[in-house]
Structure formats: structure tokens, C-alpha cells
Design brief:
With 243 residues, this protein is an alpha/beta fold. The protein contains seven helices and seven strands; from the N terminus they run βαβαβαββαββααα. A five-stranded parallel β-sheet has the order 3-2-1-6-7. A two-stranded parallel sheet has the order 4-5. It is globular, with a radius of gyration of 20 Å.
Length: 243
């Protein structure tokens, strides 16, 4: 029998996958808790797996993500190279805090631990909630990685509207942050200073309302990221004098 897992983030898409495949023989769920996961998401993931009778594998990174960010920089959507790790040896420009592409942070603290857990648990088939219409897609439906693991995205041709209609039709419980804003999406790390835009604004607003102490740290870090990027843009792209 093929060893299957559902990558379960607690988001709307992965909960639909859980509902679709919960009765598959020997199916398991896998969740990455970076240590900075939102408490209500951890509770939701745990209680949903218990309710559906799906065994849960919780994956954790080797080191604290907060400590990793201290050593490597805050994750950001826009990153001036002068502000990245090691560039202080080359560039004399100090725009503010050290930054790193968000893919570096996600890779080290979510994707790599998940990949290791898949190998350690002899997983051959992964079910994901990715859709082709998503603004960011890790791997496409049908992807096979270097370890021979097959990635199935059963919602690949679905839209967000399809997902919410399915949730409504089957009266599926979803985390309460979805009720706060139509722009809410899956929440991973409360300390994330990337993935901004509309979903980021919704995340920050929710954190302020529900987790005010965490919000103080988050908003301070976001201000430092914003100032660093702004300083770099001003330095490199300000209009020449007299123009």
C-alpha cells in the first residue's frame, strides 16, 4: 500500500483536502509547527485530525525560527542585496536591518523539515491544497521530487470560490481568522515579515486584535523591514539633482 500524507496547514484548501481524503485507508496528516505557529491554528489542526480520525505527524525545524532570523535576517518580499547576510563585508551601505528573501526562511524552517519528515516516514504520495490560480505555487500537480515522492493537488483546477462553496455545502469548520477578513488565508508564522499585500494586511490586523503582545513584536519588525527597503530605494532610485 502506498504511504500517503496530507500536508495540513490548517488553511481553507488543506481542510478541504482533509475532508475529501479523511476516509482513505492509512491516511495521515503532516503539519509543520515552526514554534511560531498561531496558537489557534495549532489547536485547530490538532482538533480537526482528532475529529476526522486522521493520525497527525507534527514536524518541527531543528532550530528556533526567531534565532534563525536573528542570524539570517527578517524575511521580506523586497530585499536590497546590500542588506543581506555577508554583504556587510562588501558594501558600506547600511540601510537598516538585515533582510533575507522569504523563500530562504520558508525553505529552512518549513520546506526542508517537511521534506526530511517525508523521507523519514517513507512517504510516497503527498496530497496538497495547491491550486493553479494561487498567487504562489510551490510545485505543480503531478510533480515528482528527487526522492520519488509524488505530489497530488486535487484542487488544482478549483478557484477560491469553489473552495468556500464546498466548505459551506458540507458545513466544514475553518479557523476563525477567515471570518475577520475576506482577504484572510492560511496562517503559518506570526513573526513573518513577508507575504504582505492584502493577505498580509489581514494577518497583521488579526494578530493585533487577537494576539496583541505578538503584534507589538510583529509591527516593530515590519516597520524595520519597511524602513530598510525604503532607504535602499531612495539611495538607488532617487532622481538626480536638477532633474
Amino acid at each position: 500500500m502506498v504511504n500517503k500524507v496530507i500536508q495540513f496547514s490548517g488553511g481553507k484548501d488543506s481542510i478541504v483536502c482533509m475532508h475529501l481524503f479523511k476516509d482513505e485507508p492509512d491516511i495521515k496528516a503532516m503539519f509543520v509547527n515552526t514554534g511560531t505557529a498561531y496558537p489557534h491554528v495549532v489547536d485547530f489542526v490538532t482538533s480537526t485530525c482528532e475529529k476526522f480520525g486522521v493520525p497527525l505527524i507534527i514536524v518541527e525545524p531543528e532550530h528556533s525560527i526567531i534565532e534563525w532570523q536573528k542570524d539570517n535576517g527578517f524575511p521580506a518580499d523586497i530585499v536590497p542585496w546590500d542588506s543581506t547576510l555577508g554583504m556587510d563585508l562588501i558594501s558600506k551601505n547600511n540601510f537598516g536591518v538585515m533582510l533575507t528573501p522569504y523563500t530562504n526562511c520558508c525553505s529552512k524552517n518549513i520546506w526542508e523539515p517537511m521534506q526530511k519528515a517525508l523521507v523519514d516516514n517513507n512517504v510516497e504520495f503527498v496530497i496538497r491544497g495547491s491550486k493553479s490560480c494561487d498567487s504562489k505555487v510551490g510545485v505543480a500537480d503531478g510533480h515528482i521530487d528527487d526522492n520519488g515522492v509524488y505530489y497530488n493537488s486535487p484542487l488544482w483546477e478549483w478557484t477560491d470560490e469553489d473552495v468556500f462553496n464546498y466548505i459551506a455545502e458540507y458545513n466544514i469548520e475553518i479557523p476563525d481568522h477567515y471570518a475577520k477578513s475576506k482577504n484572510s488565508d492560511s496562517l503559518d508564522c506570526w513573526c513573518c515579515t513577508a507575504y504582505m499585500g492584502k493577505t498580509g494586511e489581514a494577518r497583521v490586523s488579526y494578530t493585533k486584535e487577537v494576539y496583541p503582545e505578538l503584534h507589538k513584536t510583529l509591527i516593530s519588525n515590519l516597520a524595520a523591514v519597511k524602513a530598510t527597503v525604503a532607504n535602499a530605494v531612495t539611495y538607488y532610485y532617487s532622481e538626480p539633482a536638477g532633474d
